[in-house]
Amino acid sequence: MPAENRTPVTIVGLGAMGRALAEAFTDAGHPTTVWNRTPAKAAPLVARGAVHAPEVERAVGASPLVITCLTTFEDTRSALEPAAAALSGRALVTLNSGSPAGARALHSWATGRGARFLAGAVKNVPAAVGAPDTLLYYSGDRTVFEEYEKTLKVLGGDTVHLGDETDLAALYEMAVGAMLLPALTGFFQGAAALRARGLEAASMVRFSEKWLDMIKSLLPVYAREIDSGDYSDAASSVGLFVAGAAHDEELTRETNVDTAWLTPLHDLVARAAAAGHAEHSISALTEVLRKPAQQA
Question: Is 235 helix (H, G, I), strand (E, B) or coil?
Fold first, then answer.
C-alpha cells in the first residue's frame, strides 16, 4: 500500500523504545513525524524517512494519531503542554510507565483540551517492536482503538484493548511488571553466587530458562486458586518456603553474597504462616498482601 494511504503518525519521545516505535512506522510506510527534547536523536530516523519537527506543537499538528513514549505520565504532560491547543480533535496514545492515578490525571488533562485519549503499554523490549507476537495493550477510548487498530498493530501483532476505563493499561502494566525486578534480582543473586565460586553466570542461563518455564506453567494454577479463594491443594506450601529461608542465610555465609533483599519476602512468608496458611499453597500470600500487616 502506498505511504499516502497509510495513517500519518507522530512520535513524541525518542528514547530506545520511542526510536523503535518510529522505526516500525517508517519501515511500514507510515508518514512519521518525530520530536524529542534533544533534536540530535531524530537524525537516524530522518535518514530512514521520518520528518523531524523542531517544535512539539508542529509535531502534534502533523498527524491525526500522536503517540508519546516518555518515562511517566507527568513527563508526557510536561512535554505536551506547549502543544495543548494542537491536541484538539487528535487521538493521543501514551506508551509509558506510571500509576493508574497518573493515567486518569493525564486523561482528564488531554480530554479537557479536546484530545481523544488511549493509554497503553509495550510489554517487550525495543528490539521486539513490530514482531507478530509482541504484546501491547491499551485502555480508554474504544473508538480510538477501533479506528487505529490496524496502525497500532504495526508495533506488535498481539494488540489488545482491555476496556473503556482509562487506567486499566496502567493497572495491568504495574500488576504484570511487579514480577520483573524480583525475578531479575533472583537471577543476579544466583550469578553472584556462581561468580564467588569462579563459575560463569552464562553457565546457569539454560537452567534458569527451564525454571522460568516451570514458573510460567504454574501461573494459571495459582490464578485459579486466587480467584476461587481455595488454597488447600498445596503442591508448594507456605511452610516449604518458610523452611527455605535458612538456606538463603547459609548461602550468604558461604559465598558472601548479599541476600538481604530477600528479608521482606521471608517476612511476608512468615506472616502468611502465622495467619494460618502454613499448609496452604504459596499463592495464599495474595491474601496477606491484600491486608494491612497488623491484620494478616
Answer: coil
